[in-house]
Design brief:
globular, Ribonucleotide Reductase, subunit A
């Protein structure tokens, strides 16, 4: 049997549990928070006063903070790309609407709220250039992205396990900075987004754990492939108007590292957490190739920590078109 057929068989085997996983990890529409819970109510007379409060509190937050918040929002807003990519993964049938496609649709529905609430908040803040942000968002959707997963569900679930935890780290750190600057409403908003991302991380990590129990060799090879290639976050493909794809990423990454929102050490920390979560050192039933892949993965974090110590971040901020200088 080909590897592709084995993967399909495994996905079909796991599909019987998807309904229970939806109940475990996703929240019904009637029970989950919505963007309006965190934004001024335009139907009330207090709307203008609440907007003025947002604008005043926004003045207390530094330039680099706004760059990171904008970049986070843009990558959340590019959700159409992520849904179409996941819907094309082997074993996910969007025509017959199997359990996996139901998961993707409901996961998308939850994720959609993140970009929605951040977009509206940024618009009201008065600190950003919304038209340039809108252009970057449209470019990110138009350009698409290659994250090295092909249509392989194993690689895709490694990617989403990593990426969801990375977005948790970023939103959680942004929330902490906002709180320190006295912006409690923005802090609460980013904190609750981070909570969604952590739930989603646990879900995709659960998928990987289940695959390890039935196809440990190919699951190990998929994990090895993704970490050897390195995880490319959606932000890797950011560009501002007039630039080529990906040209905004390096300075965006420098900004996130400069204010401690997402650093090279965080990347390695997440890798180590996945190694621990999936108990990689104790996976049994591996063939020779998968054993070598496991050895590579186990040795990778210490090597990457040493490399991250050499990275120097520029002290001066880059002037993005997205954010007006303070």
């Amino acid at each position: 049997m080909s590897l592709k057929n084995i993967r399909l068989e495994v996905m079909q085997h796991l599909e019987k549990d998807v309904e229970s996983l939806i109940e475990k990890y996703l929240i019904p529409v009637e029970n989950i928070w919505q963007p309006t819970d965190f934004l001024p109510d335009s139907t009330k007379d207090s709307f203008y006063e609440e907007v003025r409060e947002i604008r005043e509190l926004s003045k207390e937050l530094p330039y680099d903070f706004w760059v990171v918040l904008v970049g986070d929002m843009i990558t959340e807003e590019a959700l159409p790309s992520y849904e179409s990519w996941l819907m094309d993964v082997e074993g996910i049938d969007q025509v017959e609407r199997n359990g996996w496609s139901k998961w993707i649709r409901q996961w998308t529905g939850e994720e959609n709220r993140h970009g929605d609430v951040l977009n509206k908040y940024l618009y009201l803040s008065g600190r950003v250039n919304m038209k340039e942000i809108e252009k970057t968002t449209q470019y990110l959707i138009n350009d698409g992205f290659d994250i090295g997963t092909d249509r392989d569900p194993y690689k895709n679930f490694v990617y989403t396990s990593f990426q969801e935890l990375a977005t948790y780290v970023s939103h959680n750190r942004v929330a902490k900075i906002a709180k320190e600057k006295g912006n409690k409403k923005l802090a609460k908003m980013c904190k609750i987004i981070a909570g969604d991302e952590m739930r989603h991380h646990h879900a995709y990590s659960d998928f990987v754990e289940r695959i390890f129990t039935v196809d440990p060799n190919q699951m190990m090879m998929a994990f090895h492939h993704m970490m050897k290639r390195k995880i490319a976050m959606p932000a890797h493909f950011l560009r501002e108007s007039g630039d080529k794809i990906g040209t905004a990423f390096e300075e965006f990454s420098n900004t996130a590292q400069r204010i401690g929102v997402y650093t090279s050490n965080d990347y390695v920390d997440i890798l180590q957490k996945l190694i621990d979560r999936w108990d990689i050192g104790n996976v049994s039933g591996l063939n020779e190739e998968a054993e070598k892949a496991r050895d590579y993965l186990m040795k990778l974090p210490p090597r990457m920590y040493r490399l991250s110590e050499r990275i120097k971040i520029p002290e001066n901020s880059f002037q993005f078109k997205w954010v007006d200088p303070a």
